[in-house]
Specification:
heterodimer, A: two-stranded antiparallel sheet, 13 helices, B: two-stranded antiparallel sheet, 14 helices, about 75% helix, about 5% strand
């Protein structure tokens, strides 16, 4: 493995972690928007409690992925941000309003009308951000940055459902109240079914309109990844129903990573298909080495801190 | 709106907005740490209430700071892709390290804000330490990148191509020490005077709760330590600029021609040609300040080609606004220190002065940043790339500028409203 491959790996890990943890936070916002039934406000309170202490830390994976991209692959970063200006701007609006609205509604609790308005903004923004990030990813795979293509839009919709699925699976582990717990268990199963449906649409569209991409999806790595994702989805349903919550969490994270990893694994060594390979986009050797050195040093501080954060707040609910 | 103007307007608005939250994000954890420490030490309820109140404010400010910082990391690529294509591979290291510092900050701020009931009082208090340290480092790393933009280094250009990149040399461009010191102190000056100003304003409105008195006192201690240091560092920065960034310095001081016995120009009115008229001149004072010799030669704008000169009026007036408000803050701090020494309570006049310190500190913060950034123009990275050549080819920038400006207005209004309520309600726990 070359240093450039290692840098791709670091950026890929950051993106995967953002997809899992940041994605689950967005999914929480989607469920907030869809909160319904007699326990509507209790559902929202559970979502707030789950997201509150961790969303800002989870959000930093995105910043880190961006920084890794422009440090290690500056020409590809410049090209992508120019070509995908529109969806990235919309995703940005979603990211910004999600974070701000979440805090605003929590601190405006004693002014219900205002808190209610920000709750709506929070939900819609939580939907917009993964949609346009997914759309941008889909557009990237088309090699022409066609972000309004049906394929890209379908990937956006898929991203929203997978975020919702992860959120539902993650949150059941943190809720004591049996009725509320059952609400999210049902949601987790339904969301997994939705992931299968919304995941098959981009594949069908690729088969119909993007022959090069579809051929890449039949590449052994991509095929194995899609199969792994499907299997992980089945495990998610089984574990959620059997109340094996920790295993369900692992399975749903594996599913998301398989989708991302399979995608980029199939493209390798292309970074942006048809435009950049890993090596054609890479910064100088000195920069890649320096970046890897800093990442190793930073990880020494970061990993124990993250473990501490999740140990304090993400332990199972105490009864 | 013209393409480049729209891009600069959007970036400028984003930074002007973010710098307020970034500075408070660096400074407030220190104030909270002091307040909670005083509570643990003295057991006085007022300090506990103060730590709770300020940490509520910190939660709101940190969240808005985090999202507005995210806008900036996107905008680097969305607005200035050509710059990032050049600079990313040279100056990426401080950005990467900032990523880690911000991470640590976000983790421990989560632990601090949500951990009041989950940690022992002492462990909770200590959780603020990594927030303080990583907040200061985070701002410092970003300032390193800015120092590089002022005086790019750590690479060579051969046949128009960048070669021989040395990332750790680029990370420490020549202005790094002065810039990092000036920026970090600015965060403490701004936070101290802001928090003290808010408390003084509350007292003027008749709010005499112990928590308000404690807030004013604690914040003024930080402000009164930071402001004299800042003025000393500011003097070093100005002399650095006179030596190494003569174009910026000449614009700050409206010095058209290189001369001995150079005057200091104060204030003035911008002219149609972009210069300054009717400034008050103090003969020889600039030479004296720069070289401790009234007859020393100071380089003027004539030293750089007309196309490479920064805009004079805005750079100069921003500089004067920064120095003027900074000096007034020093005066306010001195008045407060004398009153505190005499153990006199804060008189109405002093409270008014401290309350005015908050907007003055905002002016100093923003104007100081204006000086650095306008003073670097027309370059985005001096000598390497012009701002006009760095801008994106994407279209409809003006629409996006208005869209994002609208978001900033909403975020600012909502933050303001919530912070006012946090201040009024105090601690409810």
């Amino acid at each position: 493995m070359t240093a450039v491959d290692a840098a791709v790996g670091v950026a890929g890990i950051a993106m995967s972690l953002y997809a899992v943890f940041g994605g689950a936070d967005f999914g929480g916002g989607v469920w907030d928007l869809l909160a319904s039934g007699p326990r509507r406000s209790a559902q929202r309170a559970a979502i707030t409690a789950a997201i509150g202490p961790v969303w800002e830390a989870n959000h930093v994976w995105l910043i880190f992925a961006i920084v890794a991209s422009f440090t290690c692959f500056p020409p590809a970063f410049a090209d992508v941000t120019t070509g995908l200006y529109a969806p990235l701007s919309f995703a940005l609006v979603g990211i910004v309003l999600r974070g701000a609205a979440f805090v605003f509604r929590n601190y405006a609790g004693d002014t219900p009308a205002l808190a209610q308005s920000w709750t709506v903004v929070f939900g819609i923004a939580s939907l917009l951000a993964p949609f346009f990030l997914g759309d941008a990813l889909g557009a990237l795979a088309t090699a022409t940055y066609a972000w309004t293509s049906p394929f890209a839009l379908a990937v956006g919709a898929f991203a929203v459902t997978i975020c919702a699925q992860m959120a539902a699976v993650f949150i059941v582990h943190e809720i004591d109240d049996p009725d509320l717990n059952a609400d999210f268990r049902v949601r987790a199963v339904r969301a997994t079914l939705a992931v299968w449906i919304s995941g098959s649409i981009p594949i069908a569209l690729a088969a119909a309109t993007l022959p090069a991409l579809f051929a890449a999806l039949l590449h052994p790595i991509a095929f194995a990844a899609v199969s792994a994702a499907l299997a992980a989805g089945l495990i998610v349903i089984a574990c959620v129903l059997a109340r094996r919550d920790v295993a369900a969490r692992a399975a749903v994270a594996l599913e998301a990573v398989a989708v991302l990893g399979g995608w980029f694994g199939a493209q390798a060594p292309a970074l942006v298909p048809g435009r950049f390979t890993f090596t054609s986009a890479a910064a100088s050797d000195a920069m890649i080495d320096a970046f890897l050195l800093c990442t190793a040093g930073g990880a020494v501080l970061l990993i124990p801190s993250l473990v501490l954060l999740f140990r304090i707040f993400k332990a199972p609910a105490r009864s | 709106m013209e393409h480049l103007v729209a891009a600069r307007a959007q970036m400028g608005t984003s930074l002007a907005f973010h710098i307020v939250f970034a500075a408070l994000g660096v400074g407030l954890p220190l104030l909270v740490f002091i307040a909670e420490g005083l509570w643990l030490r003295t057991g006085e309820r007022a300090y506990y209430d103060l730590a709770r109140t300020w940490s509520k404010g910190m939660a709101i400010l940190f969240a808005v700071g985090a999202v507005s910082g995210t806008i900036l990391s996107f905008e680097l690529g969305l607005l200035w892709p050509v710059f990032m294509r050049y600079a990313g591979g040279i100056i990426g290291i401080p950005f990467s390290l900032e990523g880690f510092a911000f991470f640590i900050e976000a983790i421990f701020i989560g632990i601090y804000l949500y951990g009041w009931n989950r940690l022992s009082p002492r462990a909770h208090w200590l959780a603020a330490v990594p927030v303080i340290v990583s907040g200061a480092f985070s701002a410092g790393f970003i300032t390193l990148a800015n120092a590089w933009m002022q005086m790019p280094t750590g690479f060579r250009i051969v046949d128009g191509r960048i070669v021989d990149v040395r990332p750790f040399v680029a990370m420490f461009a020549l202005p790094w020490k002065t810039e990092v010191a000036h920026t970090t102190l600015a965060a403490y000056v701004f936070t101290g005077f802001c928090a003290a100003g808010v408390a003084a304003f509350a007292q003027l409105r008749g709010d005499r709760r112990p928590v308000v008195i404690a807030a004013q006192r604690t914040a003024m201690i930080v402000a009164a330590i930071a402001i004299p240091l800042q003025i000393v560092v500011g003097d070093v920065v100005a002399r650095f600029d006179a030596t190494y960034e003569p174009a910026k310095f000449a614009a700050m001081e409206v010095l058209a021609t290189t001369q001995r016995h150079a005057p200091i120009a104060l204030g003035g009115i911008p002219t149609a040609g972009g210069g300054i008229a009717h400034a008050i001149e103090i003969p020889g004072a600039l030479s004296l300040l720069v070289a401790f010799d009234p007859n020393a030669e100071v380089r003027g704008l004539d030293q750089v080609a007309p196309g490479d000169r920064p805009p004079v009026a805005i750079t100069h007036l921003s500089f004067d606004a920064m120095v003027g408000s900074g000096s007034t803050l020093l005066l306010i701090a001195l008045l407060w220190a004398f009153a505190a020494r005499r153990r006199a309570g804060s008189s109405r006049g002093l409270l008014i002065a401290i309350a005015l310190g908050a907007p003055l500190a905002l002016v100093a913060l923003e104007a100081g940043w204006f000086v650095t950034e306008f003073g670097r123009q027309p370059w985005i990275a001096r000598g390497l790339l012009r701002t006009a050549d760095a801008v994106t080819t994407a279209t409809q920038l003006d629409l996006r500028f208005f869209g994002f400006s609208l978001i900033y207005v909403v975020l600012a209004a909502m933050s303001w409203w919530l912070l006012v309520r946090v201040g009024r309600s105090g601690a409810e726990h």
